[in-house]
Amino acid sequence: MANSSIILSMKEKVIQELIDDEEIFRAIDSPDITDFNDSGRLDGTHIFRYRQHPDAVTGPITRLCIQVQIPEEEPVKNTALVSPILKISIISHISCADMTASSGSKVSRIDHLSRLLDLKFNGREDFGLERLTFKASTEKCYGKDYLCRELSFTCKDLNLDTRRQNHAGL
User: Fold this and answer.
1) Residues 6+ apart with CB under 8 A from 79
2) Element spanning 68, H or E
3) Would strands 79-82 and 157-159 be described as parallel, antiparallel, or unpaired?
4) Which of 44, 88, 43 is nearest to 67 (CA)?
5) Cα 62 to Cα 96: distance, rounded to the nearest angstrom
6) Which 8-state DSSP code applies to residue 94?
7) Strands 47-48 and 79-82, how do they pair?
8) Residues 67, 10: Cα–Cα separation, whole Å
9) Phi and psi at residue 128, in whole multiples of 5°?
10) Phi first, then psi: what are they for 106, rounded to 5°?
11) Who's near 58: CB < 8 A, 6+ residues apart?
């Protein structure tokens, strides 16, 4: 699959799975979308296809930002293996970061969502030629109001577009 197709299909698959997961829906805890039957409304309000700066949206909410990066190609005969990296950023306003009241346990919202996402995606075999493998989990702060955790997963996939270009003499 061409690099751009890998990026688009991986993002769409991840977003659809997030929207369809009731436990993730509850962990996001949208103040405006409270019925799981309306979880599709999270797309573009709490779940984004791009990295969003915390100051871009006003209000104390939790957001998931999905990115796919393809940093390198490994030539193999007439095709190329690529190593897409799925990055999921969990950005939560400090006022909704503590889940103690809603969950009964002392856990931060970003850590809880991180655990759910790790369980959902790590080891999956339907994102490329190899298993989707957990690579990193990095916690950050943005200013005084936002916490962030970024999860990274990687796999291998074929860039079939390279083979088409080689045969076309491009």
Assistant:
1) 158, 159, 160, 162, 163
2) strand 62-69
3) antiparallel
4) 88
5) 8
6) G
7) unpaired
8) 9
9) 160, -155
10) -80, 95
11) none
> Over the stretch 56-92, which tens digit does the pLDDT of each residue have?
766 788 999 999 998 866 566 556 788 899 999 999 9
Residue-wise pLDDT for 102-140, tens only, equals 656 678 899 999 999 999 999 999 998 889 999 999 999
Give the closest residue to 152 by CA, choosing from 4, 61, 36, 51. Answer: 51
Structure tokens at 48: 């984004």
Residue 147 backbone phi and psi in degrees, to 5: -110, 150
Query: Which H helix or E strand runs over 93?
Result: strand 85-93
Least confident piece of the model among 12-16, 41-45, 85-89, 126-130 = 126-130
Given a contact cutoff of 8 angstroms between Cβ atoms, the answer to whether 87 and 152 are in contact is yes
